[in-house]
Amino acid sequence: AMRSRAEVDATLQTAKLNPAELLPAVHCLSFSPQAGAGECYLLQLEPGLCAELEAGRSLVIRGEKDEQAVLCSKDKTYDMKIADTSNMLLFIPGCKTAEQLNADQASCDIIHSQIAGFSNNYWELRRCRPKLKKLRKLLMEDPYEGPDSQKDPTLTFSKYTTEDLLSLIQASEEEILHQLQVINACKIEGSWRILEFDYEMKLLNHVTQLIDSESWSLSKVPLRTCLEELGSLEPKEMIEHILLSYGRRYIDDGEIYFEMHEDKICRAIAQMLLQNAVKFNLLEFQEVWQQSVPEGMTARLDQLKGLALVDKTSRPETIFLLKVEDLPEENQERFNSLFSIREKWTEVDITPYIQDLCAEKQTVGTLLTKYARSSMQNGVKVYNSRRPIS
Known about the structure:
This protein is an alpha+beta fold and 390 residues long. It has 14 helices and 18 strands.
C-alpha cells in the first residue's frame, strides 16, 4: 500500500522528529517482488579501474575452478576478496540523494521507490602479482626442438594461442605478453612455444660462431647476412628469434642490426655447463666457463643471479644450478623451499631468489622481516626460517 502524507507525518511525530529540520521530500521504500539476496554483486573499484570502465574497456575475471579468482584490467592483476558489511546495502534504481533533492525543490514530496536487491558484502580488490608460473609450465609441456626433431608424432600436446593463455593464466594481457618475452617464447604457426634448451643453445652457437668467423663487433651484427649464411642450417625465423632473445634490434642506415647482450649469452652458456653436474668446483667452473664464452666476452659470477648459487662454506668452494623459476610462486612456500636448500642465507645471496615476490612498494628487506629471522654469524647478518622446516 502506498503511504499518504498524513501517515508520514504521524510516523515523524511518533519518532519525535521535527519536520522543519528535514527535507520536504520523503522516500517510501518497498521491496520489489524480485529483490533477493545474491542477485546483485558489488565491486569496489579504485579510481583508475573506474576510469577503465568509463572509457569502455573491460575488466576480466580469470581463474579455473580450483583457483582463487583474480580480476584483470589491460595491464594489472587484482586479488578478489569478499568483505562483509554490518549495514545492509540496498540497491534502489533512480534513488535521489539529498543533494539532488535540494537542487530540485519542485520534486514531489512523496517518492515511492522499489528496492531491486540487497547485499551484506562486496568484493574488495587488492593489486597483486600476476600468477605467471603456470605460463612457463604449460609451454614446457611441449618445448620446440626444431623443424626436424625426432619426436614421436603420435604424441600430441596442447598448443597454446594468445587467446588460450588469456583464458588459462591469471594475469592481464600486457603482463602475459611481457612474460612471454621474458621467457623467450616465440610464435610458431600461431601457437606460443618455448625452445628446448639444447636447441636454443645450438642456434646461439651458430650465431656466435658466425660472429667470430666474420670478426663482427658484438654491438653490430647484421641480420641480413646472418639469415643468408645460416638459413641453410636452420629456419630463418629461428635465427631471427635467437638474435631477438640474446640481442637488441636497431636500424642503422636502413639495415637491421643486433647488439648482442653479453650477460645473457654468458648466463646461457653457464646454464649449459651447470645442468650436467650436481655441483661444480667453483674455480674449475670459472675457468671452463670463460673458455666457453665467445671471444671478447667476460664471464662474471654476477651474471648468474637467480640461476646458480655459490657455496662458500664447502672446501673447495662449489657452484650449483638453482633457478628462481623452479621455485614456488607463493611467498611462504618460496621461503620454505629456500630454507630447506640452505639453512642460513646472507641478504646478497637470497635477494635474487625473492626479488620477484616484492609487491608494488615492497622491498626485499620488508619480505625478510616478515618471513625470516636474522642473526649475526662471524660478523655477517644472516637469515633463517621463522618456523621449523620439515
